[in-house]
Queue: 2 jobs
Job 1
Amino acid sequence: MKFTLQSTDKNSKARAGELVTAHGTIQTPIFMPVGTAGSVKGVHQHELKQDIQAQIILGNTYHLYLRPGLDVIQAAGGLHKFNGWDKPILTDSGGYQVYSLTEVRKIKEEGVTFRSHIDGSKHLFTPENVMDTQRIIGADIIMAFDECTPYPCDYRYAKRSLDMTHRWLKRCCDRFDNTDPLYGYEQTLFPIVQGSVYRDLREKSAETIASFGRDGNAIGGLSVGEPAEEMYAMTEVVNAILPFDKPRYLMGVGTPINILENIALGIDMFDCVMPTRNARNGMLFTRNGIINIKNKKWEADFSPIDPDSDLHTDLFYSKAYLRHLIHSKELLGAQIATLHNLHFYLWLVQEARTKILEGTFYEWKNKMVKQLGERL
Amino acid sequence: MKFTLQSTDKNSKARAGELVTAHGTIQTPIFMPVGTAGSVKGVHQHELKQDIQAQIILGNTYHLYLRPGLDVIQAAGGLHKFNGWDKPILTDSGGYQVYSLTEVRKIKEEGVTFRSHIDGSKHLFTPENVMDTQRIIGADIIMAFDECTPYPCDYRYAKRSLDMTHRWLKRCCDRFDNTDPLYGYEQTLFPIVQGSVYRDLREKSAETIASFGRDGNAIGGLSVGEPAEEMYAMTEVVNAILPFDKPRYLMGVGTPINILENIALGIDMFDCVMPTRNARNGMLFTRNGIINIKNKKWEADFSPIDPDSDLHTDLFYSKAYLRHLIHSKELLGAQIATLHNLHFYLWLVQEARTKILEGTFYEWKNKMVKQLGERL
């Protein structure tokens, strides 16, 4: 994997770059749609590629491991072959899901035992077997197995957890470096900075993570409930330490404003379930802020969903029709709203990139943040 | 509306025709995908048009009346404008839904009172207001308000109900003929033959319906649980009486074999929720019979969903991936399976039409029925 910085903003830390993977080039900053179980909910692969112009999607190791299971994915020749998405894929390590989705779990030095949210069966994730699992899934970028601490999290717990996450990282790297890709193309491992909202822990973690000298680095444990200001403060602390010439991935963030502010702080990669999950409940992100399409005010508004957009579905369907579909729990409502939100997120980061390359990012970002004016 | 018979099969009663409506021409025999609430579940309008090549879709008066409601549809300028489907639409009269979906209902000479399945609110459907409602929805073909009797149904009930349905038809025609279309284009009213599985009642009903001299006629109250042989027998009895030169619509039918057998008996138009509803549970219709894609046997079958198809999604996605999506209740699973089934149904009637025009229908139909060999 090769990362090239093409331009850095003079009034902020924003950067535009290019990340070359075995399945194609990603232009950064980038947003990665979440395809939990190997499918971005409600969106066909050709829509992702042609309508949304997604450059990379996410898969969840936890979900894919449980269903369809590693035997099936390996027999298919990896996730790309299984779901037909031939562009880059990133898989998380399951670290987040075993804490957020499973009810019975036990965290030990060895790893985490948990029960499947599907059938209650018992499983163990360790740094080593999570690397093996991600070798089998075959994503271009794979993530270290970490503990993602909740918010709020007391200092002592955060510190102890962080130390374990660092020891786990060593085990992840050892396993990863001593195994080969299964399908003939290169995979890259990103370690994850943790440390909750404690500046000193974040600094220590960033230094540790940087010392591993991997090809890219991630920041985890944010967007878990903390105020946006704390999130930005942590990103700033960490980015001052993480290597400048390597891609930085802020996991699970966030709203359009969160994304713009973090781009300004030097983040290159984002993922979040918000545009897809909230779409299914009728929350639309637009360049003029957030719309709840279920509101009565859209009942007889027959204007296009988003006249500012160049997406066919945004121009073809009306707000009133989409409102009706969401109210009626019609599948098509989820499909249309998801396409809209993902298209908007991809437009936002593409626009940010253009402004960085033009040298006008900072001014544009401040204007957009005002215009978005979101209140969630 | 103008119907032209283009060809009739010499070894059966099958016919190929063309039905010209204000929103375009329908080539018969045709299958009409069901878009209950103004949307064919899981399918974009452009997919219906370009991928499935649907020529006409159905809407349900009962559902549309309750949600989004007539005010919204009228403000939009009718259902075509509301949902963006600019080809022909047919609406049923709500007669079936008020019996099958509502729990509290009372059938009187005046009409049917029922409670909404959405919010329990009380409503009255009469032959007159159902015509007015369908004027507002603005479908090209609208249906008379009838009572659809269940199966089994005792003779006395079926007879009494039929007489009322006939009196209601008179009221429907009076109201329809004394009102104008709201949106400037012609609408056509089809009456419905009832009579359960009683030959004499079906004959009597067909004669009554024919005497109204409308531009097309429908057969209702079949595919409600009776054996296929009874369904075919009733179609045969009725079609011997219904005018030869007008389109015949068999409501709510059915499996691929049901459709082929009824085409052979002289039916021109079909609708059924089976290809869409069953798709969502993983039942796929193929030219070699029915597949339950959830079966273990497809778990690692990475061959295309349907190699015989020319639909992109049938060739792009594998059986194993679709199985995974349906098991995981992913929206994309419903989308892919629905596209597949509708494409297959449309292919089937298009193929039947080609064979009728070629003069080889009867032989082909018998071969196909064997090949389909369906057991539901």
Note: The mean pLDDT of chain B is 97.
Job 2
Amino acid sequence: MNRKGSVSQEAEFTFTPLVVLELAKDTHKDTKEWLIQRITDKKNVGGAQLYIKPLEMDDGLKTHNMYIIGASWRRLLLGAEAVCLVKEYQDGSMRAFTYLNKEQYKEFTDDNEDFLTMAECQYIIKRELENLRAIDETMIPGYAQAKLYPGKSIFRRLQTSGILIQYFPLHNRGELKKLTLNWYGRIKPAFLPIDSIQHYFGDSIGLYFAFLEYLTVALFPIALIGMPYYLFTWEDYDKYVLFASFNLIWSTIVLEFWKRGCAKLSYKWGTLVKKRKFEEPRPGFHGKLGINPATGRKEPTYPTYKRQLRIYFVSVPFVCLCLYFSLHVMMIYFRMENWALAFHQEEQTSISAFMLYGPSILYAVVIEIMNRIYRYVAEYLTSWENHRLESSHQNHLVLKVLVFNFTNCFSSLFYIAFVLQDMKLLRQSLATLLIASQILNQVVESFLPYCLQKRRNRKVKQKFQVSRVEKELPFVQQVKLEGEMDTYLGTFDDYLELFLQFGYVSLFSCVYPLAAILAILNNITEVYSDGLKMCRVFKRPFSEPASDIGVWQLAFETMGVIAVITNCGLIGISPQARSFFENSTELVLLVVAVEHILLVLKFIVAFSIPDIPTDIRNKLFRLEFESLEALKQQQMKQAEESLPEKKKGLEERKRKSSKDFVK
Amino acid sequence: MNRKGSVSQEAEFTFTPLVVLELAKDTHKDTKEWLIQRITDKKNVGGAQLYIKPLEMDDGLKTHNMYIIGASWRRLLLGAEAVCLVKEYQDGSMRAFTYLNKEQYKEFTDDNEDFLTMAECQYIIKRELENLRAIDETMIPGYAQAKLYPGKSIFRRLQTSGILIQYFPLHNRGELKKLTLNWYGRIKPAFLPIDSIQHYFGDSIGLYFAFLEYLTVALFPIALIGMPYYLFTWEDYDKYVLFASFNLIWSTIVLEFWKRGCAKLSYKWGTLVKKRKFEEPRPGFHGKLGINPATGRKEPTYPTYKRQLRIYFVSVPFVCLCLYFSLHVMMIYFRMENWALAFHQEEQTSISAFMLYGPSILYAVVIEIMNRIYRYVAEYLTSWENHRLESSHQNHLVLKVLVFNFTNCFSSLFYIAFVLQDMKLLRQSLATLLIASQILNQVVESFLPYCLQKRRNRKVKQKFQVSRVEKELPFVQQVKLEGEMDTYLGTFDDYLELFLQFGYVSLFSCVYPLAAILAILNNITEVYSDGLKMCRVFKRPFSEPASDIGVWQLAFETMGVIAVITNCGLIGISPQARSFFENSTELVLLVVAVEHILLVLKFIVAFSIPDIPTDIRNKLFRLEFESLEALKQQQMKQAEESLPEKKKGLEERKRKSSKDFVK
């Protein structure tokens, strides 16, 4: 086997560098040796069986705190089987890849390196590294304080001890250039190259962009219908009711059809077939080393009831407390606003006029601080809940952050709408918030980091006297440059942005029909800025398998339900509606009735649209049927092998009690 | 093979009679011969490969319009595999039975006839008979008007042509006696012998009784808490709110935990593991003979869009029309009631006093007639929709009937509660309806048929001079007697009864807390009367596999949601609540707020209780994991067999572009 044994020995062989590992500069020699040993060790002694090689710096410093990792083609294929990668079989169906019958898969030939995408290879390596677990080590060699116990993820401990700075997948310059050209490199309107994005960045990012595109297209009808309301300033009661009703039913249909589109995509990408249930535990998961009851494999176990206790008696009360605090802060803000207004009316000076802005600015700052602290605590709490699966961890984190962000973003709007009942102020605040948040987001999220990154690039290039912009950096510098790029923290913030936007569009749609148009405009620039961000600003993220948008589907649907309630409420308190009814009780009853009817309609629509298109469902059925048939056949084989030949005649024998019945 | 070739040849061999087939008395000889041929034909020529034998009448008449059907032990085991029966494997897990490795199942020994229960054997035979399909016949021999086409179920056509009167499974007297003793044969309170019921009557009936028992036990807390309200005639506003809130949250928890209990039962019975997806098409399903995309087997196909068209453009409008009509009839009833009241107040004679009852009686009769007509049409429509699976057919039928029955039963109560706002009348009507319907149901459903059946039994016994009650009838007479018993039409009406009862208990619980106690009393007697009905009154029904209570779960949950709305409404319009608030708008807003909070709470509770207990989920995961592993191994085997030996070294080869990257 062409395997590298130790660090000191100069690597003679070459391999495609896939992942970069960066250790702390002062890492103990023992630690390095031990880690490299574990990474290169064979699978059967608990290693990852990968290639690793120090990155040779041009500057002569042989500190070796950066390593490049690769793997043999065979190792990658075996890894693909281990992580349950799904590939297209020769009969056109999607099947879990197995090494031994690799030839049966459609695009597999022995020299087709594209059978596994680079993103998939990097994902495989990541999984292997993260699943390196301590066997009998009680500590990380050289660091007595970094305790280990059997089953503990080594990489997790290295990270928490500060020894491992980061590990990240490398970009592929050629592929990236092609992708950017198709993505945001042209001006003419076109659909996103979703498949290429998935190919390069993996499923979860592919799905995010598919969802972004889908939502943008789906907003067009709402924008078109909302346009005349803005142009002709229609203020008729019944027209608003009509618009709001259309909006609500439309958003339900859109979300339901997304599920179908999403199933189609994830079937094509092989993640729909992939069994989430056999996911390995996430790297951060810890507990006693036990045996997984489903797979029979050794892995850490943690009792569910303990997790439940932590969720219900710590996390839930904490979130509730935070929500209460957030509302309290909002009330203080409105009180300050009133006070500032009163002060200005009394004084009428330029200082008092300036002070009018005080509360808003203060509130914005406080909200931002609260958001950041909360996010940090939410992440800590979710880790502490110790979820076995990455997906379940993510879902709990998303739910926590979502509820808080929703409250922070919309509570002041709700207050204006339903307590102050000032429609003009609501429309104004809504427009301000929507436009400000969209511009701010794009600047903070993409353009600012892009400029910083560009400056950084220029510096590096100057340093190495690479004068021409077009010329490629040498490999080592390229790696160092990528290592210094910011880390993309997942699709979370992108979805959150879309979610809040969806809230602005749907929650108060009957007051501000223009929101849909603004959202479309934002999303179109978002495609460009997000593309820039993904390709130029951030380190390449590891591909993450995903078959749907997870808890976000639920979040968007919940927003739809809340939207029904708020829109009905808004229509109910509008002066036009009030002028129709002399008795306000009658009005309230009518509004409540309409709300209930809309909700029922929503549920019926959601219920009657199947989540998975028929052709994909048939394919899934087929796979499941075959897998059951295979199980039966295997059982048969086992039975035949384990049993001696039986007398066949015995089976034809009549049932015992026959004679007693039939005469 | 010990197989019977034709009718004329006297059967020499014996077999356990399992199923009885009754043809019309004047059935053509050709038809009989053809049918028997098809039933006894081997599987590979499209037959059912069963034993059949005419029932020999003692009265010498050899008309042979009744046949008894059985099967060889081997045939039954093969049939068990074909219908995907699930049995306990030697390692304690539940697995789909396969004939070839039958020895690996826990209770299987070659002479253990109890491995398959009698109910299972009968189910297997039923499925085989119903799946006898026309191959090249264009008509039923002897009946030119009874057209056949390839793929048409022969038994279905025989039934619709009136040639086949019925086919039913035989009782097992000994087993039945034991079952009745454990069930309703003793007075002392005990839990139902659910497993024995399932063993004898099959899954769907077993689940019904498990649900009945579960619901009864679950009603106890509500009954206990409701007791003091009745005893002390508490009329406090806040106490009612408390009771209603408890009731609503309790009913949510109860329904959620039922899912878990149900999963436990159906795992034990093997139906949870059983794949619903590979269900064969239901006998009534017709269409062009095509190929099932999942299994690759030949079966009738029918395009989904056609079914959708029929559902949405015929069935749905029809149901809506009927609902409108039902409401219209109710309005007429209330108008007549008013008119009768006015007439009585004017006249004050005994005739006018008697006429006061007129509208109620007329309304009850009209409702009964409407129910019957509607039920008939609903069954016709659902058949016409041509659902592929029996379960989907049942669900659509249940949904149709449910909506209509709900409207008929509760619309007058809703009218009294929310339009007339007469709480006293509501309580009175509720009590009358609840008690009357319960008594009526038990009489009509069980005692009346029981008396009729008893009389019929006595007649038969007299005819054959079986004087002593204890003495068993001869087999032939026993079969004839069972053939004359009424047919049990499935658990539909039993669930409907429970559903309406659940409605009476939960919809207006804050007005009438006593309802829960009445429901418990009814359910306790229901156990006895249903037991009597199942064991003594009806023909033994065929066992039906079921892993849950299907659409009824949804129906009960929907009732829970409606209950939240009505209870909040009732509390809102109560005079106590009104006296609290001077401004009625405020009251309505508060009520709506409480309603929304309760609904949100309901959904959170439903969401946070997992539907399947952890241990069962682990077992399911294990099965699925193994089945996937088996598929992989099978693919490997195929790959190994189909491919020549490959050079192993090739796999170790380095990736193409390595040298360009690493220097």
Note: DSSP finds 21 helices and ten strands in chain B.
